[in-house]
Design brief:
Length: about 180
């Protein structure tokens, strides 16, 4: 039925967005390896407006333990350094008047375990979001009067199947990030 297919598509779209939010959150989490995602979203005061670093500078990782930020306007270096220190990512910037260098320190075993716990919490929040989407879509399904009760029952089973597939994707992302964090 067309209505059911539309509902399934809508459910998948919403769940895909929840997965993308998790993916973006996990990129920001420090793993002991340099990644532009750690800093590109940090907001910088630039000529009276607030912009993400990626809009005022190029960000590169020439080495596994180093992030280099080259502002297009060198006058922004102090503002970018302040923004990095305020962001709470735990990195200390240094500059050579042309670029800002962010060395990534080695993570201790204890810190790695703390980060893994945080990743588990973020992932659990995403699982809750998926379940909420499923619940809302099942409510929508039950409101459609043109669908027979048997089809509604099968529709609920399909919603559960879709939710399980997206939960598996979440678990895969969690597993990858956990492995990345625990690697030396």
């Amino acid at each position: 039925m067309k209505e059911l297919e539309n509902l399934y598509k809508q459910t998948k779209d919403k769940m895909e967005k929840a997965i993308e939010v998790l993916r973006n959150e996990l990129i920001k989490i420090r793993t002991g390896r340099a990644s532009p995602g750690l800093v590109e979203g940090i907001k910088v005061d630039s000529y009276g407006t607030t912009l993400p670093i990626k809009q005022v500078a190029s960000i590169a990782c020439p080495e596994p333990k180093l992030i280099v930020i080259r502002p297009w306007d060198p006058n922004l270096i102090p503002e970018i350094e302040k923004a990095i220190l305020r962001s709470g990512i735990g990195l200390t910037p240094s500059n050579d008047k042309v670029a800002i260098k962010l060395p990534i320190p080695q993570l201790t075993e204890e810190r790695r375990k703390d980060i893994v716990k945080m990743v588990h919490k973020i992932t659990e929040d995403s699982r809750v979001a998926l379940r909420n989407i499923r619940r809302e879509e099942i409510i929508e399904l039950k409101k459609i009067e043109s669908i027979p009760e048997d089809d509604k029952y099968h529709g609920e089973k399909e919603m559960q199947h879709i939710t399980e597939n997206y939960t598996d994707k979440l678990n895969e992302l969690l597993s990858q990030k956990e492995k990345e964090i625990m690697e030396e």
